[in-house]
Amino acid sequence: MKKHRKIQKKQETELYVQVAEKPENQKENVGEALACFCIYVGWYLMVMQFCRASLAMILSGSVGAILLVMAVLVNGQKEKKFIRKIVHEILAAAVLCFLISFTIRKGWIFQGALIAGNGLLETIGRNMRAFEPDYALTISEPLQPFVTAVFYVTAGMVLAALLEFLRVSKSCIGTILVSLIPGVLLLIWQKEAVLFPVLLIYAGFLCLVAFRKKEKGLAQLQTDVMLLVLFAAVTAAGFFMLRGKASSFSPDNPFSQKVQKFAEQIRYGKKTVDSLPEGQFRGLGNLKLTDEAALKVTMEHPDSLYLRGFVGSIYTEDGWKQQDADEIYDKKDLFYWLHKENVSGLQQLTALYQLENPADDDTGNMTVTTIGASRKYAYVPYELSTLPDTLENVRSFGDDRLIPEGFRPQKTISFPVHSNLIRKYPQIASAYYQDQDTEAFAEYKKCENSYNAYVYDHYLQVPDSLKQMLTKVLASDSDEKDSENVTSHISYEEANTRITGYLNENITYTEEIDPKNTDASGEDQKTDAKTGNFVTDFLMTEKKGYSVHYASAAVLMYRCFGIPARYVEGYLVTPEMAENAQDDGTIYVTGKEAHAWVEIYQDGIGWIPMEVTPPYLDKMERPDFETVSWQGAQNQGASEQTDTAEQIKDEEQTKPETRKGRKQLPVRKILIVVILLLILALILWIAYQILKYRKKWKEKNRAMYSKDASQAIRSCYAQLRCWLMYDGVRIKGGSRYQICEELSRKYSSEMADQYRKVTRLAEKAAYSSHAMEEKQAEEVRAFLMSTQKQILNEKNLFQKWKMQLKVLS
Question: Do residues 709 and 770 lie in contact, with contact meaning Cβ atoms separated by under 8 Å?
Fold first, then answer.
């Protein structure tokens, strides 16, 4: 008997395969080929975008597309069966070569994969604000385009083989992954170039569903189409809402700003101790500073310090943005070589001081624990005395700040720092200007000149709409220069005097600002005079504000004078706090110490914080400018550094072998891989559950429509009992007819009568030796369907899904 059942099952399977592989007409083959082509092209273009491939490499994928279309077109045609066999053998050979090349880690395919991998690492680095080291190549440079093309051709055939396997096997799990992953990548990456490939993939799946409609019931077809259309629409809508009019998250898109803020609160925690806006001034209100602890700072030698958090480089009309990631990544080699020479914008002042005073070892360890502040930033002082690359749990990208690593960054970071150098930086600068041409400073000067050129290229931009106004308010017509072609600038002391003088004379410091601009009567005031530009309105209309306003205006004023400047938000460790530190050097920095200031780049020295907000002019120790000589300081502009910068670039190109080489995988990346694997496992588990329930549904459906009428009636009646039971109608022992009265009361008397009739048929099918008729089976099926519909119509969507799963389980 068991052997007979196996033979029968095998015959049914073979019959199903024959029916599935042989379409009724050639049009279905063409439609399915078009669908597979769309899915293939979408996936291939998306991979090329991530790997930053050229147009020629993209065209290499046409080989895989042709093979895939050929395999689909000849599907089910006996006279062309050999063509399909040849195509499958070619695809299988490509997969085998691909696997062998990666197993032995040699060959053209593997080298081409490394080149593509370098492109992928660059894409990830630009998006994640991280410098990723390249994979080392053993192939000569003239052969690199060829091996890259070989890899993309092979990869295209592997993709074609995968899609052909999923098509033939009708894998539910594979279909879910192939359709779900592109949408997730689009929402994460938010690049317009990826939108077209993703929509192309969805279009292919819609075509595939449409041309396979005869293999499905109408209800199943409608469900598939609705789910695909819904998922595609949600993906596209989410993409456009997140992107808005801007090219990325920006103040120009309020919805995008809210989404970003919500996501950051989940990842970094909500900042509760102060109201500093992290460069986003839209809807800026009164300054709120609390006594709650923001940071716990422990120093071996307690001293007053500025702790940098957010650093804004690009001014918009209503806020500051970080330096563009692409611009920083384009200078990856510059930062690499600067770090090789122990020079970084984050510790430049300390590096210079240690060159001038090699015997001075006034350094100590410092630990910063984030409590109420945002964990998005690593709060470090200007006196950092080690390269950022040597620190744990943080990374540097460019020169503006340290970035905490991990989805949920560590609350505590430790690093070595020097005692306060800001108060004596004039003496450091004076000593450097006098001795900069000596051999001891030769290497440092060469690196500083190259970095100086980068600074002047990126931190002098002032919007055209503000240049004329700022020139007017500073009364600096004789000093007017094009900030993009600056060759020198006025003295730092003169710039400080003129900027602080104007702000003190014309601006009123207040922490209470009125965003609605209303007077005591409640009528709007100066509404027409507002321009919508934060700095313009602050200087010309409102003329009042707090540190955020002062620092923003000062940054643009310094830039107008030809001095590179940036906007900074962070926390202060004041001299009074350092003096009252606990015995172990612990200081609790509260929200009261949250502050915004301007930092300027002093040629040869590095970034220096400058105070322009009136209440803070005496809160931190001020540098002593009277005891130093500034000779040689004022001619250090962008022009002097050009030749040296070009010299360093030439040296970078002559030593590429030291730049290459993949580092060992850090813990952060391992954790990311583990998380991705867990997500993949979750997706696979969900797919398995779907597949399992679908299999059960098919088995029960097969039993309900069995050619054996008795078996069909028994199966339908069992399903009917399940539906009634989950709707609250239960047989508690005894006769099956005892629920008729309840059915009549809950549904209708007609249904109760029909239930009696169906029950008699079920008893006859179960216990009688007489054969049942197909007409009787159809009657039971019809009653089951009508009962099921009546029950589901009264339920919500969640209850419908829950009830259907219970019936199938």
Answer: no
**What is the sign of the dihedral through the CA atoms of 413, 419, 424 and 429?**
negative
Distance CA 415, CA 351 (A): 15
Lowest mean pLDDT among 321-335, 361-375, 420-434, 633-647: 633-647
User: Which secondary structure element, helix H or strand E, spans residue 329, and what is its range?
Assistant: helix 325-330
One-letter identity of residue 804:
Q
Cα–Cα distance measured from residue 157 to residue 64, given in angstroms and rounded to the nearest whole number: 4
C-alpha R_g of the chain: 36
Q: Strand 412-418's sheet: what is its strand order?
A: 412-418, 363-370, 293-299, 586-590
- What 3-state DSSP class applies to 308? strand
Distance CA 381, CA 383 (A): 5
* Strand-pair partners of 381: 307
Strand, helix or coil for residue 366: strand
Question: Taking a C-beta distance cutoff of 8 angstroms, is the pair 409, 375 a contact?
Answer: yes
Looking at residue 771, what DSSP letter applies?
Answer: P
- In the prediction, which pLDDT does 483 show? 43
pLDDT digits (tens, 9 = 90+) for 244-286: 433 333 434 555 566 666 767 777 777 778 888 888 888 888 8
pLDDT in tens, 728-781: 777 766 677 777 878 878 888 888 888 888 888 888 887 777 778 888 888 888
Report d(CA 740, CA 755) in Å as an integer: 7
Contact (Cβ atoms closer than 8 angstroms) between residue 601 and residue 400 = no
* Antiparallel, parallel or unpaired: β 380-381 and 363-370: unpaired
Q: Is 773 in a helix, a strand, or coil?
A: coil
pLDDT, tens digit (0-9, with 9 covering 90-100), for 635-646? 454 444 444 444
Question: pTM above 0.85?
Answer: no
Cβ atoms within 10 Å, residue 67: 22
DSSP helix/strand/coil, 559: helix
pLDDT on residue 523: 42
Report pLDDT for 331: 86
Identity of the amino acid at 770? H
**Element (H or E) spanning 295, and its range?**
strand 293-299
Q: How many CA atoms lie within 13 A of 320 on its CB side?
A: 29
Do 563 and 491 contact (CB within 8 A), yes or no? no
Look at residue 395 in the predicted model and tell me its pLDDT.
84
* 3-state SS, residue 395: strand
Q: Residue 263 and residue 376: Cα distance in Å, rounded?
A: 11
For 214, 520, 598, 636, the CA distances from 284, given in Å and listed in that order, are 60, 21, 19, 38
Q: Rounded to whole angstroms, how far apart are CA atoms 444 and 68? A: 59
At 551, is the pLDDT very low, low, confident or very high (cuts 50, 70, 90)? very high
CA distance 193 to 190: 9
The C-alpha atoms of residue 191 and residue 121 are separated, in whole angstroms, by 16
